[in-house]
Records
---
Amino acid sequence: MWDESPKDECGVLGIYAPQEDVARLAFFGLSALQHRGQEAAGLAVSDGQAIRLHKDVGLVSQVFDPLTLSTIHGDFAIGHTRYSTTGSSCARNAQPFLIDTQYGPVALAHNGNLVNAPELRAHLMHRGIGLTSTSDTEVMTMMLACSQGDTWFERLKDAILHWKGAFSLVILTRDQVFAVRDPWGFHPLNVGMLPGGGHVAASEVGALQTLGCVAYREVQPGEIIALSNTAMTSFQAIPPMDPTAFCTFEHIYFSRSDNIFNRQSVHAVRQRLGVTLAVESPVDADVIIPVPDSSIPAAIGYAGESGIPYNDGLLKNRYIGRTFIEPSDEQRKLGIALKYNVILENVLNKRVVMIDDSIVRGNTTGPLVQLLRSAGAKEIHVRITCPPIIHPCFMGVDMGTYDELIAHRYHVNEVCAQIGADSLAYLSLSGMMQAIGQNDGYCNACFTGVYPLPLSQGVAKMSFEQSIA
């Protein structure tokens, strides 16, 4: 889990599947991306003439039912699972966004965050273009409709030159699906081939595997891929940035363990994070336990390197959504109490090492330590598989403000006292990058404060709400 964590990550999906039930395929693909966002879900489908859109707040299984899916027909589709990064959590900010243009309908779904969204929004409104939401995704959709070019492909190539920040996109027109990744490569995007000859673009390879794709690869930074009746075509619209800025937290937390990110197995990276953490911060203990689920590989790695037995200590209620998805701290705190139970016999009278992927606000780690303490743990040593998070993220991760980040306000020993642990240690920045296997090409701004591109004023999550309130 990522403690009350940064709420990154939307999931995006695009499908071209001729003579298939594309809406049902999209439903299963979005279900495989549910972990990337639980606030809203949406699906846009084209039959070659018109695009139909259905979206709402809630989980994929709550937004779509068999009757709804049976009324949406076509060969092309894009879908989205959302958590709120830019724009509040409400129905009007659910994606995809669909508009009619002089060139026909276009729908767009977005994972990431544009750091120059306030300027782009102001420019559109200055031109007299009305906006119905507070999402930077609508800004991108409107810009695409106003861009120069004789085809959607040319207009897309023009539009992306003005977008600064993180964007993994899927775009739907009457007869095409586009997949686009920003030149920094912040967040993942993959494309695969269906057995019947169609293609799928998705945030993670797990969705491609769920749909039975027989081959897949990552969309490269700055690449546009078009899925249509004629075949899959690709074009390097913008050269990849040098260096790139892959989001480290895809490895640490966001991606499901079966994902491939920057050509690396996420599960293998997480296990190496645990090994390196055990080398850097050993402790005498009786049992290693993970905070499920993203910390499980790291706990296995820590146990293997340290020789301390691994066991389950915290039981996760699978029917309670990820606490970090909830938009407020109050809801996060309530979710924690409902979400975990302790397996008493595995921690009673034992010195416990609890492995977690991160501490952000501190609202989850403390209650978990208290749960273990109440269950009879003799000692509780917390080990974190990344460095302290001391800076906000503006690239698609809702890590809160400086005042909300516990490691920005307190030193490590003070954080340890705040959460009630016997000891606390974070993985070093060099150790984390050693486990990932690269020294550069990743965005570590939340640890270092060194952002990969200049920030515009007012890029925080609620800036649009404040400007239009």
Note: Residues 265-448 form a domain with the Rossmann fold fold (CATH 3.40.50.2020).
---
Amino acid sequence: MRAATEPGFGLGVLTKAELVQSATRWAQGGVAAVLAEDPDSTDLHLADTLRAGAGLCDVDAVRVLVDEGPGRVNELIALGAMFDRDPDGALQLAREGGHSHARVVHAGGAATGAEIERALVDAVRLTAAAVLEHWFALDLIVEGGRCRGVVALDPSGARQEVRAAHTLLASGGAGQLFSVTTNPGQSTGDGLAMAVRAGVAVADVEFMQFHPTALHHPQMPRPLLSEALRGHGALLRDATGQRFVDELAPRDVVAKAMTARMLEQGVDHLWLDATGLESFDERFPTIAAEVRAIGLDPASDWLPIAPAAHYLSGGVVTDLCGATTLRGLWACGEVACTGVHGANRLASNSLLEGMVFAPRVVEAIEAGREGAQPTGAMRAVVEAERAGGKRTRELRLRHDSDIPGRALALPPLPPATGAGDAEKLRDHLQRTMTAGAGVLRDAESLDATADAVAGVAASATHPEVRNLAEAGWALVHAARAREESRGAHSRRDFPNTSPEFLVRLVAL
């Protein structure tokens, strides 16, 4: 990536908080990448990712991820990121749920995201032409069928137009849709909501992944007890102390098993037994500090845990270079649907996805790319053109790709007709989403949740609450339309996987 000071390539970063307050810093486990062959391989990493994705991963997207990932990790190291190493200087590798081999590099035991963020923020400070902190992006500017930037609120609250030849959404997920989440307060689905309002295609938004082992404690976001703990031998126990699930199963399997056991036993949390792990404080200093701060000793106490909203596997549909269905608009990271995660993200593939696909966006823009190609998740959606080269916003779904697209009818969100209390509306929305559209769902709960979201929207004038309602509206309608259980989406009334739904639900 060229420096922003070079001719013809100016770069600005707009963020609603400070640059260091991103979801990246909360990622604990690490980055999954095959940095040493034999016994591991990129083919095995690919197979593990496809298995976790429950049939909805785009194979080409996953191949890009696993093949380019090791090089991107080494680039990050060159930028100054410091990963944990053994006494001989070799990178320490951990194994997490769903992985067949130890291939996860980490920093500070369980502070990988914070270290990656530190290295990237330092690099951005040196290269960005402008860093606009405490600016809130309200909507995309669309002119002539192209994105021309965003309308935003500046730190004083005044509306401003921030215009750009190319706009990259890297706004993260929507974990704040739920009352229990590992996501920071900024994860309110802003990028997803702006895209929906602009008619940009979004897909796979029903697949909200719940991390099974969040610390059961009033603190929010919930401290995450990294999957690496289970990779090193920590055990899951129910209210009676019995083991009940394979600790290294994919997250959706573990979260569903935990939720079912909690309902069966009438409890609001279960236990993670890490008492058998040696040198806990030295290997996991961040987690050790968090649990000791609430009076628990991981060497002798079982740790209370419950599932928490963690990662949105779907989002704004992109091709393999990050292009969306709106020219001039690009997306990467959790806000994007690249096709990598399918119905359920494999542990520690999230940081890797950002590290691989963000540079592909920059390379495509530098190469003069215009418009999306039918690659990755975009294979389910193609743009139609009228004779004479006039481009339209008309989209059609492909049915000749490996994972065909199916149109998702997404009614407009009701407009705000009143001005309710933002905090109360947000709390009501989060509680309703958790109860009706959480780990376990059914038609009745989803219909009730849709009604509640519409009610919140009717009183939501605050932009963050409005965006949460927009994101929740899309998630609930997608979950209602998918009449099966697959990956992170579990329907009590449709408990089995159906071949009829081996499709990508695309809201246009």
Note: Residues 12-171+312-376 form a domain with the FAD/NAD(P)-binding domain fold (CATH 3.50.50.60).
---
Amino acid sequence: MSKSRILFIIFTLAIFAVILLTFLTAQPSPRITASIVGLQASNEIAGYARAERIRDFKFPDDHGPHPEFQTEWWYYTGNLQARDGRRFGYQLTFFRRAITPTAPPRESDWGTNQIYFAHFALTDVKNNRHTSTERFSRGAGQLAGARGDPFRVWIENWNVETVPSTPLRSAQDATSLHNARLIADEPGYALDLMLTSRKPLVLHGERGLSQKSVEPGNASYYISFTRLDTEGTITINDEKIAVQGLSWMDHEWSTAVLGKDAVGWDWFSIQLDDHRELMLFQIRQKDGSIEPLSSGTLIEADGTTRALTRDQFSIQVLTTWTSPHTRAIYPARWNVAIPSADIALTITPRITNQEMNVSIVYWEGAVAVEGKSRGASVRGSGYVEMTGYAITR
């Protein structure tokens, strides 16, 4: 083995060690998921940009990376159905994490201060099976990276990139069109999906500035495509299955968003069959209370949006589920109500065990929705993410 190859391996292992130590030592606690809170807490943030004020977004560039901020992610989730009625859920998420505020002054193509990692999961409802995996890589040497124009995010052969039916001719096109192809391939299971936006881009919070606690800068820039027609194939146990359904895309970037008393969050994305969508999040505090600046967004059928404050919605836990892997006790069914929008919903996981057993353990899974919207019966689908529940195995 050549000396250069040995140095490359040593450097790679060192980078992985840095990011894993960032995850596992952000808070001196036995809870695995303290680290996911640590990623969004106000620790070691000097020199990074902060989400402190409303910004003028510039698309398509703002679909790409913002390396001056410490943390960023591109989240794709969806509920899919095969021709025979079988149901599936998927998650493909790309994360970017800066380990220093500025890039190192190195001439090497391998020099970088950006780490990328990704999570890929499939839920097979009929067989009550959820499979998850992850990848890590450096944002250099074409191993991993992101760009805005044309949009692409990738880690090795996991990839999402826009495939516009017509070239983007204006910034308005970039806020209404999101035609993307998602590809992820692991031994035995994979996905290859085409996504087409049916609604314009949504800016959450105050024109895209989503405040998470009262401290200045404890906020993120948060944008979404909330209704993406989806078709393509998934592969489970080497069986390739044609599917179609709906997806949701989140893009969020920040440096620190959580207050010192936060222990985790619950996030909901809901797509109703009356063509309304709903995003809600609540941040849980150490004393059992909910962060007052938890919030949401209601997207109407015509694409217009309405910001929701914490006192305008309620989330009631109906039952719980205990993970056999971590012994974490997660909520497992909810009632969600928004009286001012005439919405009352019951949300149920399509299967209970959709825990992500990756470096940072959390629950992320497909859910079924039923209830009332504008006085009429409604059904729908969605995804729920829950962090801060898992304990050390």
Note: The domain at 3-386 is CATH 2.40.370.10 (AttH-like fold).
---
Amino acid sequence: MTWALASTAIVIVGVVAALAWFERTGPDARQVALVAALAALAVAGRLAFAPLPSVKPTTDLVFLAGFAFGATPGFVVGATAALVSNMAFGQGVHTPWQMLAWGGVGVVGALLARPLGRRPHPFVLALVCGLCAWGFSAFMDLSVWTQTAPGHTLDDLLAIVARGVPFTAAHVVGSVLFALAFGRPVLVALERAERRAHVVWLAPADG
């Protein structure tokens, strides 16, 4: 089996396992609707900024989804956003890699929810979103290396990373600016929606 097939197979198994885990958790209709709505928003954000290569609010939205809803919903938002938006940008072997990368951003958001607190400082939020954008780009550079590099050497990887520096920089800067401009308001709105999605049934009072 070649590097390209083996690496992509591993990525696909990871994506399928994560989606299956979300299904196994038994999300109710309200949670599914929230995840679908946010995934649609992430797709719309990517499409809206298509004329600006690598500048997109998708990474921020996926991070905030994981931050507000948890790891599995955050992963599903990221994976779905990649799959659906690529219906416009073009499907290919890169799609499962993007699904795993953006899904991973959602998981990172969930993992950082407690350390950062429910209302992180805007500059902290922007810094974290910028790091997530860099991580996404680095993962996609790795995908290019596994798919196209003839020798899969360190020099090949460094060359791919160097060629991608302008796109990575645009992604990071765009994510930082989006987070500074909209991060806190979007997070507040998501937390409000998440609270409203949980209904607690109380037993009737005696009497």
Note: Helices lie at 3-24, 29-48, 58-69, 71-89, 94-116, 122-148, 154-163, 165-196.
